[in-house]
Each structure stands twice: as structure tokens, then as C-alpha cells.
Amino acid sequence: MLKSLLSILLSVLMAATPLFAAPADQTAGEVKALIPAASRNAQSVKVKDSLAWNDLLQTDAQGRLRAGLTDGSILSLGSNSELKVVQHDATSQQTAMELNYGKLRNQVVKITKPDGKYEVKTPNAVIGVIGTDFYVGYTGNQTTVICYVGKVAVTPAAGAKVLSTEHAAPNPSSASPNTVTLTAGQMVVIGPDVPPGGFQPSSTPTVVATASIQDTNVPNEPLSVGKVATHTLRNVLIGVGVAAGVGVGLGVAETRGGTAPNPGPAR
Questions:
Q1: Which of helix, strand or coil describes residue 229?
Q2: Same domain for 129 and 228
């Protein structure tokens, strides 16, 4: 009888363990600014709403959204975009995002953990960074990646042609031979048609860099998209250039003559 009772009690405890062991929703960050219409998990979202793992963020033609992650990184989601925050653990520095379509700017804090990672996946590429400021866009079966600061590793999805060794990442033990490494001022477009020699980095035209930052700009005040575009075009000129021995610089110049060294949005 005693054994039967112990057996029943043990079974109850084992069945209840997952209820006590299951972690609460993991907090990934917070919405910092937005232009309606934007949603989280198909529900309307507002500034200061928290973000959790597996949250799905969406914007329509009139919407944009900026979010701050718990490690200090900043996400700026453009219009007509869908992003899934798969995972973000600031302690272990493990971050995974899925951009199903649209435009996304990532301003990532430096990763110091040996096994830390920050990855953004699109339907046909994986983008990984150590600590940088970069843009990812996906539309029409093409992934566009622009590196503003730092380095970005872009790996086409399975089936893409392997790059020549001179265009592969410098450390083959830590990256796929398919990987394209971008430095500041470079971009790559991953599409269904692989060019001869594979996908290779190229210099980012100023107009392309400017458009990518404009398209993901989310002001602190809830302005309309039309006003945002007008304000940005009138006041902001973003230059991306290469100078020998200096590298690539991003500058934000006010038309009144003032300058600001940081092109990123206020956190």
C-alpha cells in the first residue's frame, strides 16, 4: 500500500515538474518608437511594449518600428516588413532573428562571448555579425545586405554556388566556404541567379546607403510616413566613402551646416 502511494506521489510530482520548471516568457527587449500601423503577434503594439522570444513583428505600407534589445542593440524595421524575434539572450549573447520580408537595420553591440552570436536569417541567406551596424532587406527573392560599420558574414542558403577561395571568409574553419565577408562600405545581393564566380562584395553606392537608412528611420515622435520622408530628405545627407588608410565613414550632415557623427537613432 505504501509503495503504491509513493508511486502515485512520484508520478504526480513528475507530471507537475514541467509546470514549475518551464521558464516564463523570455524578455527580448522593448518597443522604443513606431509609426502606426505596426503589430506584434497580429495585435496592435505601442511604445514601451515589451518583446519576448518568438514574437512576430509586422508593419504595413504606413508603418515602421524601432525596438531596443536587452543587450543594448537596436532594431529598426521598415515599412511592409515582417520580423520574428526567435531568440535574444543578453547574458549568453545568443540572438537569432528571421526577416521573412521587408527591410531591417541592426545596430549590434559588440559580442565578447567566445560562443556568442547574432544572426539574421532571410529565406535565402544567413547574416552573422560580431558587432556592427548593418542593413538587411528581402524582397523579390533577393537578400540585400549593407555593412555600415564593422564586419558582416553573409552565407547564401543551401544550393547557392560555392565562392572561389579568394572571395571566401578569411577563416575557413569558422565559416562556410559560401560565406561572403563584408566590411564597412560594402554590400552584397543574394538572389536566385548566381553570377559567375559566385556572390561577391561590392562598394555600396551612396544613394543606396542613404535610401537604406531612410527606409528604416523611425523618429521618436509619431509622424506620418510622408512627413518622415520629407524631414529626412530635407535634413539628412548620409555619405559613405572609402579613403586610403582611413576606411569608411558614415556622416550625418544637417543642411544648416551642423554635423553629427552618429547616424543611428536615439535609443
A1: helix
A2: no
